[in-house]
């Protein structure tokens, strides 16, 4: 019998581009192939590009159009839906420098220190309209008619892709029916719009400023739509090259999917929750007619749209059945999704 082999998808850097339409529309064997390709990507880098993922390019470009429009509003209008203080109600608008991603969970002084180099970004968060704990916060409709309606419907596009992906991952891990999707039944997810304004590239290259500091995501899965500017980097997965950062360029019509800390724990370390950050975009070509010495190189603004998924809050995240045995003992203490997310969010805001 021929040895089973999984076709290798195209790689961008270390990250494969997987055609997810083969899962959405394929037969059982094609579904299994896609599941294996994603499993491999999650084991190697924790990141995968998906094309043919079912969220049409028109929908994605409309989302970016709304994001541009929102961030172009005067600050006084955006501040009509301010992000509440603290990290437990993660909705609404955060202005420049308000949120500083921190990997450090416990030490107040470490959080303050990290905030000395502020992330130069602004963000707008919304979530499931049925989430009683974190109601959405919108600026009055008259200031941006249609924004709320679009964001509420785009939420469901992304949510549906997450649930399909959970089915894919259940195949990869042989999680018995009904698989992992019901553990996310409440879809308590978060849709984030991010805008990194233009600033002198020098500030990013010298680490005087960051766009988003190095961090791992803390939910189960993240979808990331990025514009064509670039600047996303992941830490080299090889522990011997810990300080090395690899660029993750935008791929047309692809959504990036990455593993968050909860999924890494749940898979008992089989899948990686990889540190990532946003720095300076790749150098722009040439200068404008020799003016570069006088004029500082400014980097282009960047827009991105991450969508964070997490399991229902009472789900106990303990190594999944196929992910541990005598040779691979459990690496982490069980934790509920709620406990873990609260711990991480408390470190986001002072
Ligand atoms: O802007 C990006 O591409 C990255 C955003 C990100 O990593 C995050 O919000 O967690
Ligand atoms: Fe992230």
UniProtKB/TrEMBL annotation:
Region: Disordered, residue numbers: 275-296
A GO BP entry: small molecule biosynthetic process
Domain Fe2OG dioxygenase: 187-311
Gene3D superfamilies with a match to the protein in the record: B-lactam Antibiotic, Isopenicillin N Synthase, Chain
Coiled-coil regions, chain positions: none
GO molecular function ontology, one term from the record: oxidoreductase activity
Top-level taxon in the UniProt lineage: Eukaryota
Pfam families: 2OG-FeII_Oxy (PF03171), DIOX_N (PF14226)
SUPFAM superfamilies xrefs: Clavaminate synthase-like (SSF51197)
Keyword Cell wall biogenesis/degradation: no
Keyword list, A-Z: Iron, Metal-binding, Oxidoreductase
Keyword Metal-binding in record: yes
Sequence similarity: Belongs to the iron/ascorbate-dependent oxidoreductase family.
PANTHER family to which the protein is assigned, alphabetical: 2-OXOGLUTARATE (2OG) AND FE(II)-DEPENDENT OXYGENASE SUPERFAMILY PROTEIN-RELATED (PTHR47990)
Name the UniProt record assigns to this protein: Clavaminate synthase-like protein
Originating organism: Lepidopterella palustris CBS 459.81
